[in-house]
Amino acid sequence: MNNLTRRTFLASSLAAPAFLRAAGKSSDVRIEQIRHSYEDFLYRTPIKFGGTEVDRVTLLNVDVVVRTAGGKTAKGFASMPLGNVWGFPSKVLKYDQTLAAMKALAERIVKITGAYKEYGHPVDLNVALEPHYLKAAGEVTRALKLSEPIPKLCTLVTASPFDSAVHDAFGKLHQRSAYQIYGPDLMTHDLSHYLGPDFKGEYLDKYVLKAPKPRMPLYHLVGAVDAITEADIRKRVNDGLPETLPEWIHHSGLTHIKIKLNGEDLQWDVDRVVAVDRTTTETQAKRKVSQWYYSCDFNEKCPNVDYLLAFIRKVQEKTKAGFDRIQYIEQPTKRDLKADRANVMHQASKIRPVVIDESLTDLESLLLSREMGYTGAALKACKGQAQAMLMAAAAQKYKMFLCVQDLTCPGASLIHSAGLAAHVPGVAAIEANSRQYVPAANKAWEQKFPGIFDVRDGWIRTGQLDKWGLSAVA
User: Fold this and answer.
1) Where does the pLDDT of residue 48 fall: very low under 50, low under 70, confident under 90, or very high at 90 and above?
2) Which residue spans of the chain are classified as CATH 3.20.20.120?
């Protein structure tokens, strides 16, 4: 029975140690070497979300070597944007301060991870290390005298490439895709060890596709400051890439469009959806395309659920056809669900799936979201491969709507995000924003992965993401 609640989960986790040491497997690894580095890129155009414009990105790259007890070794690599505006939003701390905090935390994480010499499956290594990462976040907060503590989400983002690099190395060591390492032949524990008694006797491989879906639709982002039509352009970039929504639709063959909303001006939000739908309808008519979809993302800026319900009602009034194309609504209100218990989504989620994104940091938050009426979950590679896989299993078990969102991931991080979407049942499309905002970071990857970074027919070619590890680096 799918009857695990947040209360029973907390009670069971307090009653006994959740991660008792068990006899390992010869396939287990320990972390032999680890190092990290950074890359910086400017955006070609800014992106606005959560009320803040961003025009640059710092990538955190991680290289590891893992070793079995028998002496077999393999190298792994992963990369992830340090999305500090998303992971560590602040009205007090400046961009450079939150970025510096994430870098300081990364310095501690590399030391913690390198010093950990126990053997285990990558999921177990991450489960063991995460409490140490969270403790380190508190230490960095105090050491830098930050006026706000480093949030858990920010810690997950900073730690994610370390976890993912270990998964990459483990897959290569065993000559498998990282999505083929979750069965009882390689995992010591079944899912009840991580997710509670509902999962007794089940292993993670039950919830993961061993082979990627051959292709998946691309979800294109219309940011809150992006030009919809020619009239919205103040000054053209003139770099050869599209600059309006119709240009992007023609260029990439779009059928899925994600609309960023402000959540602080109801009329603006409604008008934005109406404008996107009007322009898209006109453009698709020229292409003789009759079916396309939207998603709406408020980035937790709605003041309350009444705002969301009013938005739904007004969009339906203004453009019923446009509203019918909305697949789901993402994170409408505050990410701290415990402090926002009054804003339940039961009524809204009867109309469209309402998905948690920023709120999803562990199983407890997933269970709490279900109690509050959320019916979907956004998986993200930037929270780590281990968590993404475990939350994918839990969300499927509880019959939740699933999507995979990226963090404007370029290069290896997009390969990871696309691989995640392609191997999780039920995920229908892939968000891939870096081609719009930071294509310079994709240049070295485009020829190696045709159809991933340059999409012309609306589909991302995910069938090629079947190599060893996370498929990004041989």
Assistant:
1) confident
2) 207-461
